[in-house]
């Protein structure tokens, strides 16, 4: 069992069950019910500028509160959501809950920077994404400048999906920030990035994790930071877990970081508490 899967955590797929279409069909039905029964909720993880420690964003991450199995991580069910045609439904729910939280924070006078929402490839392809963002921004009174859409780098690799670009360009023109998630794990060439409607890159946590042991990884991180600076776009470095990683990154520039060192993903109320404290004092010593 992998490290990510706690002993008592339910796993839907054992390796030898991956191709079992019956298991998958059952999970799909369960997920449909879960949407009906409002069993999905969000946790939130702050992003802070590594120099000023100001909160620059907060990422919304979906969880499934299963009636019997407890909290289920997205890695367990997103692949089925993607394949089953449920992605636009769940995506709409996630956007709505995220922007609703953002409105509550604004009303409480808490500056969270931007609310970051992960956008799935099928939702992007559905033709509904723009409408879902617009409706939710309207409902909750959130300006586009307060919103980031995180899209996977891989979304751009398939050029038959050029409709993706059109949708993202429309979001971008509205003022919604577009960030490429897990950057460095796909194969988008660096020159390709200059043609995309994007405001930032999220450096994948595999680089952060290996950076101190593997000089090549550190070179990539350095190059990405320089690339972003020369393109005048932002950087968020994912998966910062240790002071040593933080110290190294700090030598590389001025950008945002996200990871367990700053905060774990937290339920809404805990996030609100964290942000109130962050507004007052320093939460870790430089
Ligand atoms: P992601 O967007 O790259 O999100 C970062 C993941 O890394 C999250 O896992 C987060 O809990 C985890 N993480 C954050 N800091 C650290 C750290 O310091 N160390 C380690 N080891 N992990 C860290 P999570 O919540 O399980 O989400 C996994 C992936 O599922 C996300 O990767 C994203 O691609 C997808 N996902 C999550 N929520 C949503 C959603 O609402 N919609 C869509 N379409 N995808 C989502
Ligand atoms: Mg993300
Ligand atoms: Mg990521
Ligand atoms: Mg990831």
From TrEMBL:
Q: What is this protein called in UniProt? A: EAL domain-containing protein
The organism encoding this protein is Roseibium sediminicola
Q: Which domain of life is it from?
A: Bacteria
Where the record annotates domain EAL, the positions are: 24-279
What stretch of the parent protein is included here?
A: 746 to 1031 of 1031
